[in-house]
Write a structure and sequence with these properties.
Helix content is about 40%, strand content about 20%. By secondary structure, the chain is of the alpha+beta class.
Length: about 600
């Protein structure tokens, strides 16, 4: 068919539309060419860099955390293989169904797992997300048998922290927990990232930067979805430093066995250096529980327990010292000249001050008592009278000389200060003046007086080492992976008590009498082969309910019973070990705490009787 056969008007319209179409095509191609020119010429280098960055990624390699040893080189904390449950988001067909299955199989918290999946970057759908760390063998077996029915699930093996002896020395060693967003923002953890475990208490907390080590990394080639294709280069991680403690594992184990079924704390210390030989607090906890990833129910149970298992009672337990405080009052009385060691004061069982009567623990009294006998038999009336002569402010001054009412400077834990009251303190705290009757109670370690077990270990050490207060330390040395020593323990002093040597000797003789002479309240600690010195204490837990029960002759419930104290040192002539023991609601120090001290001294010094 020829062109002339078409209607001229139709041909003209067709030609106009064709021209318009050609123009549109030309404009579109022109825009495409301009865009290509912009992308390749103007912005080419920028996009090329981004392309390379997307293609090559640097992936972290976590280091092995440093190992912790006891003073003899026996491992307390190390690392072991750990099996983690991971999922690949892109590989999951039905998230809710998968999480329900994992909850049914291994008890995985579906809400927490879903939260972790939502936090995963959508830009990298093939990057594994950890849902559970450190699965048990039973959990691993269950997952392995069902894994082919759960798309997107995988198992990864990584080194995991392992506390070789479970609960042993848990309060000293501390535990690990996941680093928080707040901690990351502080800038104090430059070697850590989200999801890392860091030290939360104890030695793990104190030496976190050195124990942590240095991350390694791999430069890997990935595809657009983030899947690894090959490793380009690799920088191995650097393991953390090794920590050697002053703790004796065998003594520590014996200390903890002696506290089984009890609440309380024990501190064993070298009185000449300040080295902590053992430190225990009960109830305690197993740090391995935190490594596996503690669920909310378990954490709530631990953190809200009335037994406070996470609290280190040796550092933070604040107790009235009871008669152990008489050591301070005796030294203050001698130094201030308010008592002659041979002066005899009469104890008839009751001391009257105004309208109030203060009783001695011995109902009918001790008769005529000098300082030596007052310490040996722990006569309350004697110390009521000496305390009244001194006054609370002078008593407080000497207590503080021996490190009470302030932290000791222990190197691997947070301490409480305790409380040594003064007249000024009471006026500021309660707005009322100090009363003489309160001085009477203070003189035997009651009233407002509060101390910690580690303070009492430092105090008794100072009495027998000539008056020097040593900073308690648990770290013997720290060695980096190459063998370089990063820290070595040097005994540090925190002050001098400033007591004349002759007065220290008088009190020391009295404390030797407590254990080794007739009627001594600490006779259950006596050993034939060495001379042990010590002081018992019974700290009253006074409540109206308790008084009511006692008047009725009923049995006093455990929670109302007195705390039992005992401080000891051996051998008295050349001290090698100082002990501070408190048993909550244990009753009398001579019966509840002194026998424990005997067993610990025998074991540490290697004597059998």
């Amino acid at each position: 068919m020829r062109t002339s056969d078409f209607d001229p008007v139709s041909v003209e319209i067709f030609n106009k539309q064709l021209k318009r179409a050609i123009l549109v095509v030309l404009v579109v191609f022109g825009l495409l060419i301009l865009r290509l020119w912009h992308l390749q010429i103007l912005s080419g280098s920028n996009y090329r860099t981004k392309s390379e960055d997307n293609r090559f990624q640097l992936q972290d390699i976590s280091p092995f955390r440093g190992i912790i040893f006891d003073r003899k080189g026996e491992m307390l904390v190390g690392n072991r293989p750990s099996y983690g449950l991971y999922v690949i988001p892109e590989g999951i067909q039905d998230r809710e169904r998968l999480l329900k299955s994992l909850n049914r199989l291994i008890g995985l918290d579906p809400e927490l797992a879903m939260q972790k999946l939502k936090q995963a970057s959508p830009a990298y759908p093939f990057r594994p997300v950890c849902l559970k760390r450190d699965m048990s063998r039973d959990e691993l077996a269950v997952i392995e048998t069902q894994r082919f029915n759960m798309s997107g699930v995988m198992i990864k093996v990584k080194p995991q922290r392992h506390y070789a002896w479970g609960k042993l020395a848990s309060h000293v060693l501390g535990y690990l927990g996941e680093i928080s967003e707040r901690q990351l923002k502080t800038g104090k953890y430059p070697g850590n990232k989200r999801g890392d475990l860091i030290g939360k208490s104890g030695v793990e907390w104190k030496w976190q930067p050195l124990l942590n080590g240095m991350r390694g990394g791999e430069q890997v080639e990935v595809d657009a979805a983030g899947r690894k294709i090959r490793v380009i280069s690799r920088k191995p991680p650097v393991s953390g430093a090794s920590i050697y403690l002053t703790i004796d594992k065998d003594l520590q184990a014996l200390v903890e066995r002696s506290l089984v079924g009890k609440k309380g704390a024990i501190v064993a210390m070298d009185p000449k250096k300040g080295e902590i030989l053992a430190m225990a607090s009960t109830p305690s906890f197993n740090p391995n529980v935190f490594i596996r990833g503690i669920d909310r129910a378990t954490w709530k149970e631990i953190s809200t327990s009335k037994d406070f298992p996470l609290q280190n009672r040796a550092l933070c337990g604040q107790y009235p010292p009871g008669s152990v405080f008489k050591i301070i009052v005796a030294l203050a009385g001698l130094e201030e000249g308010v008592v002659d060691p041979e002066e005899e004061l009469v104890c008839n069982g009751v001391y009257t001050l105004g309208q109030h009567k203060y009783h001695c623990w011995k109902k009918h009294g001790h008769g005529k008592v000098n300082l030596h006998r007052a310490l040996r038999e722990s006569c309350d009336i004697y110390f009521y009278k000496i305390g009244k002569r001194l006054g609370v402010d002078r008593i407080a001054r000497y207590a503080k000389r021996f490190g009470l009412g302030k932290t000791t400077g222990f190197d691997a834990g947070r301490e409480k200060t305790g409380l040594i009251p003064t007249s000024r303190w009471k006026l500021k705290r309660f707005g009322v003046p100090w009363q003489t009757g309160e001085t009477i109670s203070t003189a035997i370690g009651q009233s407002f007086v509060l101390v910690t077990p580690i303070q009492m270990a430092t105090m008794i050490s100072a009495v027998f080492n000539g008056g020097t207060l040593y900073k308690p330390q648990v770290t013997r040395w720290v060695k980096k992976p190459g063998g370089e020593t990063a820290f070595e323990l040097v005994p540090e002093t925190t002050g001098r008590a400033g007591i004349k040597a002759e007065y220290l000797e008088i009190v020391k003789e009295g404390l030797i009498g407590v254990v080794n002479e007739p009627h001594g309240t600490g006779s259950r600690t006596r050993l034939r082969q060495i001379t042990v010195a010590g002081k018992t204490g019974t700290a009253q837990v006074v409540t109206l309910e308790k008084e009511k029960l006692m008047k009725q002759g009923d049995e006093v419930p455990l929670e109302f019973r007195d705390h039992a104290w005992f401080v000891a040192i051996a051998p008295a002539e050349r001290p090698e070990i100082a002990l501070s023991i408190v048993i909550e609601h244990g009753g009398h120090g001579g019966s509840a705490a002194a026998p424990i001290a005997k067993q610990l001294i025998k074991a540490y010094l290697g004597v059998d009787k």
